[in-house]
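Aim 2, interim progress. The first record below pairs a target sequence with its structure tokens.
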Amino acid sequence: MRTYLLWSLLLPVLWLTLVSWRTAAIPEKLSDYGFFSGKLADQQPAAGVVPYVLNTPLFSDYAEKLRFVKLPAGQAVAYNDSAVLNFPVGTTLIKTFYFPNDFRDPAKGRRLMETRLLVHQPEGWKAFDYVWNDEQTDALLEVAGNTKTVRYVDGQGQTRQHAYSIPNLNQCKGCHNRNEVMTPIGPSVRQLNGELVYGGSGVNARENQLTHWQRSDMLTSLPALENCPKTPVWNKPETGSINDRARAWLDINCAHCHNPKGPAMTSGLNLSVSETDPTALGVLKTPVAAGRGSGGHPFDIVPGKPDESILIYRLNSTDPGEMMPELGRKTIQPESLELLRAWIKEMK
């Protein structure tokens, strides 16, 4: 009994010591990295830090994101059209989450919430999260996670307020692991195949990201752009069919878990954009262990009947025991549900 009590007292101390030791060499402030020049909140990339965007990004409770990549000096990434790019050791992927004060008018400012880093170290990818202070002067390393309240005016002029979750470092694995190995999710050729304004203004400042990366010696072996896959923009009908846009949304929001190598591999559900088997995609597929998350429905997707499909039920819930994705959101995105309902309705 005495030994048990001794260990019960020592274990928390040992855990805190281990956390302190693991984070001792990690910069405490985002500003320590030198990723940005000038005022940190302006997010102006320093030399060697390149902005990028995704055609269809992950939904994160309506947070907007600023994305940047910093490759090690003199190194590039090789083209591949089937998976996320294989970035060299020394790469850092930078993603800042923010909310405009008014989505209708960027001039009214924004509130930066957190900046997440994925750093490719010799032993693999490591995730670090920096939470912005109220003064918006810097972001501090956060290990344990947090929840903050956000308030803003949405695109329809409605004032919205809700909780915003900042993950702890262990939760990052819940989305980024493949066969227990952490990996990036977003920056693939198909997602980067789109235009971005690189400084200046006007039409001449716009350039395809893949072309820019090749011209900047960041990407090798790029074929002609017309031969490169391209993810449509999920909410822009002119970029793709309902099927293509729905599959793109599911690929970025769900397939990082629901694939044969992801954390949800045991579900048998594969929502990757490359999946061609209707059953693996969920069509008339019974869930493995959805519990009350099934909403009483027998199949993941019922062709022609979105409201009898478990997929719609779980995306339309904020109950922690039912909702999907399990991490990264506190709210429902009606716009994507409208697209997915239309996708299921047109299924034969």
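The second target in this work package is listed in the same format:
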Amino acid sequence: MSFSILASAADGAGTPAWAMLAYLIAGVFFILALRGLSSPASSRAGNRYGMLGMLIAVVTTLATHEIANIAEIGIAMSLGGVIGVTVARKIAMTAMPELVAGFHSLVGLAAVVVGLAAWLDPASFGITDAAGQILMVSRVELGLGIAIGAITFSGSVIAFLKLSGRMSGNPILLPMRHVINLGTLVAILGMIAAYAMSGAGGGGEGQMIIYITIAAFLIGFLLIIPIGGADMPVVVSMLNSYSGWAAAAMGFTLGNTAMIITGALVGSSGAILSYIMCRAMNRSFISVIAGGFGADDSSGGGEAREARPYKQGSAEDAAFMLEQAEKVIIIPGYGMAVAQAQHALREMCDMLEEKGVEVKFAIHPVAGRMPGHMNVLLAEASVDYDKVFELEDINSEFAQADVAFIIGANDVVNPAAKTDKSSPIYGMPVFDVDKAKQVFFIKRSMGGVGYAGVDNDVFYMNQTVMLLSDAKKMVEEIVKALD
């Protein structure tokens, strides 16, 4: 009975019942993909589900639409596939955040191109009335889809430049930026409303859509440049959400159920993840998406710091204390990723366990430059999933730990987040490494600070020994000393 209802509804919409069922199956696979990607142990299966769902969606779309030139589509898909596989194989794990941002920009640009194509030739998309004018609901879909896509594109470009080091990670704070951003967003919504209420068609008419596109490209830049590096993981997740909503809007324009389902899943899951990460960083979700609303124009990491005494040790010192310990908690950060030290770290972990030492890994929700960055690196080095713990699951264990081994992390272990109300990271949950009996802290030099640009009192604690070196080199030296 339910299938007959589906068939009649599909026939009324001009889409075969089997295609609607195929899109539904593809949607189920996409949901299974998201479920699988929620855990490192099931992430490979999640990727496979996503690939299978996308294959079903693409084949169904090609089979149910009139194709002007299947050869051209095949060539375009082949070129895109070759480029995607080549980039994915060559990209370093440390460059994964900027790769994700780059891919988000392409999704946004695709939404803009499809929207403009529908605006120029609406009859081919089936979105016109008897008079040949674009339907009002389609004008709303076009305006929103193009605007969200343009914001995603330009914002992702800035995120890519910041994450790849081609642009400073420091916030670029324009005068009256909040007024400018809010005014531009209101103007975009106003233009979309005006365009929807007009009778504008495609071709040379309805120039309002061009103004919407230009303004949306502009606001994408303006929203991301004031956001500092410490908030970049949230930005990547947020842009992922934007790309999903852009795809969903274009799905309505194209009448493609798979795009609507996929876009809604990506958009909602990205928004939820962004909210969770903002809570983990004690950031306001609204302030981040509004473009660095909470940033202080006078703050920054360039302030002169008072010279304070600290203890410096060697690889031999660390090896001796590590093999004498009963419990070691390792906190990896972006410095580990840059140095590609995860494989050496896994080797050190294996040697300590052979000596009877209990070793655990503590991962902060915003460690690295994108959600799950550290988890991916540890998985690449074949670290067992059951040794990796989130902040809320392991933070209470530092009081029983003999050694807290910090490698390339900074802001996520900074006690200023708990004690200094003037600190830009105040209120962010951090690891209680100060409760461990011994702390080893690997960083390149004492001159550097974390991505948030603030000094760290952990450097100067009585139980802290600084290991000043490249992370990979230092861990390899510790491995040699353990051997």
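The first strand starts at residue 327 and ends at 332. This observation will shape the mutagenesis plan for the next reporting period.
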